[in-house]
Each structure stands twice: as C-alpha cells, then as structure tokens.
Amino acid sequence: MKISGVDIRPGNILEYEKGLWKVAKIQHTQPGKGGAYMQVEMKNLVDGRKTNVRFRSADTVEKVRLDTKEFQYLYQDGDLLVFMDKENYEQINLAADMLGEEVAFLTDGMDVTLELYDEKPLSVQLPDQIEAEIVEADGVVKGQTASSSYKPAVLDNGVRVMVPPFIAAGTRIIVDVYAREYVRKAD
Fold it and tell me: What is the pTM of this model?
C-alpha cells in the first residue's frame, strides 16, 4: 500500500531501496521556505543498518502489509524475550534488540501485537500508552509554576520523562511509549 511521506509513523514497516525498514523516529519539519517534509530514522530489519531519509509530502513509499497476531509477553531470558501466542499458547523467543528502547516498557503479562512477514516476526507493537509510577521527581523550583515548565522524573522502569511541576514521586501517570512523554495523571 502506497502512503505519503508525511503519513509515516514510528513502527511502520516500509519497503525502501529493495529492503524492509522499520521506522524508529520521525520529525515533521515545516520550513519557512519550501514544502514540509518528514525526517525519518529507519532500521533495516535484515541486517540492522540505520539510515535517515527525508520524505516530502509528494513522495510516496510502499508500506508493507504485515500479518498481525496477538501475543502476551511472559519474561526475559538473557538477551531473549519470551512471548506466548494467545490463540494456541505456543511460545516464541525474540531478540531484545528487536524492540529497541521500548523494551524498558515491557511488563510481565502485557498484551502486544507481533507483525509477521511470511510467518517470521519482524516487529513488536506495544500499547501506545502505559501506566507507570514515578519513583523519583525533582522538587518544584519557586517561581517555576508556569504551565509550560516541566521537570525531570524517573519512572519505575528506569525511563526518564519530563512531567508537570505538580507531579510528585509515588504518582501514577500515563506515558506515551513511543514519544516517551507524559500524557496525564492516571485515574
């Protein structure tokens, strides 16, 4: 399926230069002069090479249609992650580096979606947002109460995020997994 360059999202699998690439990061840029473009960081799914490519809105790229299947994350065994097929309860092992930095957000029993190409797992999609607890947060600096000021905090999984000044250690928050950003306070 062909998609526009500005419709590319993290986690997409693209066919580019006769290879399969997973989109790691994107940055939409709209310069004052010229057309908007998407700066895309991609990783080759076969040999692990990384590349940065600039796609304009007029550019089209082939988004690979992958089969998706629901799995449940069980545990980590060294450098391998063990997942269970939710339909037939078979277990598969995948390299932890397949997830990249998102591996920190995996929790036991988490439901994930595996994308398969010719029955071979290519990527793991975590939920877009998860609930996590703040274990460490800097204090509020006097006079720094403007709504746009954020402070660093550490989640229970070790990931650092920026949070509003009213968030304290022990607070449960909702975090965007792929952007690594505070979304809101958990209910």
Answer: 0.64
